[in-house]
Amino acid sequence: MAEEGLVIGCHTVDHWNEQLQKANESKKLVVVDFTASWCGPCRFIAPILADMAKKLPHVTFLKVDVDELKTVAQDWAIEAMPTFIFLKEGSIVDRVVGAKKEELQQTIAKHASSTAAASVSQ
Known about the structure:
By secondary structure, this protein is an alpha/beta fold. The protein is built from 4 helices and 6 strands; from the N terminus they run ββαβαβαββα. It has helices at about 15-25, 40-55, 70-75, 100-120; strands spanning about 5, 5-10, 30-35, 60-65, 85-90, 90-95.
């Protein structure tokens, strides 16, 4: 599978379901990047996301191409790219629409810190 940094690219529905289940069971924060190859802002944010993934091993980063996995994009009501969905134990805790580096970093920090704190306290 093609991985950019530690961003896991999901290219089949089965692989997506498997990665999502693993991530949910890990109790880590999951950041899903819904992207498209033709999307300029997606290409802009991809290396930034890959860099974040390298620096944040306690967060799981998944990438879904909306054209490749149309049903997954429909299931998650994706209407614009890039859309980042933040999950904890299978529940959506946040969403960022657009290639907004600062908002993305702040949202990851907000939710990842509570995950790290929870794992330390257990």
